[in-house]
Amino acid sequence: MHLFDAATGLNVLLDEVPVDPQAWDQAPRQVSIALTNTCDLACPYCYAPKLNARLNATRVVGWLRELDDNGCLGVGFGGGEPTLFPGFTSLCSTVASQTGLAVTFTTHGHRLTAGLCDELRGSVHFVRVSMDGVGATYKRLRGRPFATLLARLADVRRVAPFGINFVVNADTIGDLDSAVDIAVKAGASEFLLLPEQPTVHRSGIDEDTATRLREWVCNNDPALRLTVSAAGADGLPVCVPLTGELPSEAYAHVDAQGVLKWSSYDLEGVAVDDAGVMAALHVLREGRGAA
Ligand code: SF4
Question: Is residue 109 within 6 Å of ligand 1 at its C-beta?
Answer without folding.
Answer: no
